[in-house]
Amino acid sequence: MQATLLSILGLALLGALHAQEGVPVQADFQEEQFTGKWYSIGLASNSNWFKDKKHLMKMCTTVVSATADGNLEVTSTYPKADRCETKNSLYIKTEQPGRFSYTSPRWGSKHDIRIVETNYDEYALVATEISKNSGTSTMVLLYSRTKELSPERLERFTQFSKEQGLADEDILILPKTGKSSWEER
C-alpha cells in the first residue's frame, strides 16, 4: 500500500512539474514592442493573498520599461483606499526570450514569469508561478493597451486560466475605479 501511495504522490508531483513546463512563451518575443503602458484587465490566482484581497481589487496601470541589460522594470500603480500606491519590480531576463524571474524583497517569494501571448498593441497574457516556503501558487494576468478588451480576449484569458488549473472563483475581470488620477501615470 505504501508503494502505491508513493507512486501516486510521485505521479502527482511529476504532473505538477510538467504542467509548469508546459506553459508556453510568446514565440519570437520582442521586448521593445512589449514596453509601454498597459492596463491590468484580468487577474486570476489560487493564492491565499488573492482570495483574501479579491473583493478590493480594481483595474490598475502598469508601465514596462526595458533596462540596458535586457531586464524589464515594471511599475504598477493602483488605487488603495483614497490614494494611489506604486509597486516597482525588476524582472530579470532568462535564457528564454519572454521568460523572466523575480524575487520579492518583501516576501522572499520566487516568481517564474512568462509572456504567454501578445500582439503587443492590444493585449498580453502573462503567467506566473510563485514559489514560497509555504508552497506554490499560480497567477495569470491579462493586460490591455486600453481599458476595454473584446469578449474574445476576455474568454481567452478565462480559458487559459482554467488550463492552468484555476477555478471560476479564482478568476476576476478587474472593475474600473471611476478615478483617473492613477490611470494617467
UniProtKB/TrEMBL annotation:
Lipocalin/cytosolic fatty-acid binding domain sequence ranges: 35-177
Keywords per UniProt: Cytoplasm, Disulfide bond, Endoplasmic reticulum, Fatty acid biosynthesis, Fatty acid metabolism, Glycoprotein, Golgi apparatus, Isomerase, Lipid biosynthesis, Lipid metabolism, Mast cell degranulation, Membrane, Nucleus, Prostaglandin biosynthesis, Prostaglandin metabolism, Secreted, Signal, Transport
EC numbers on record: 5.3.99.2
Enzyme kind, highest EC tier: isomerase
Matching SUPFAM superfamilies: Lipocalins
Position of the signal peptide: 1-19
BP term (GO), one: prostaglandin biosynthetic process
CDD domains with a match to the protein in the record: lipocalin_L-PGDS
Predominant place of localization: cytoplasm
Catalysis performed (reactions): prostaglandin H2 = prostaglandin D2
GO MF entry, a single one: prostaglandin-D synthase activity
Cellular component annotations (GO), alphabetically ordered: extracellular space; Golgi apparatus; nuclear membrane; perinuclear region of cytoplasm; rough endoplasmic reticulum
Keyword Signal applies: yes
Subcellular localization(s) per the UniProt record: Cytoplasm, Perinuclear region; Golgi apparatus; Nucleus membrane; Rough endoplasmic reticulum
Family assignment from sequence similarity: Belongs to the calycin superfamily. Lipocalin family.
Binding partners and assembly: Monomer.
PANTHER family: LIPOCALIN (PTHR11430), PROSTAGLANDIN-H2 D-ISOMERASE (PTHR11430:SF86)
Protein name: Prostaglandin-H2 D-isomerase
Lineage, top ranks: Eukaryota, Metazoa, Chordata, Craniata, Vertebrata
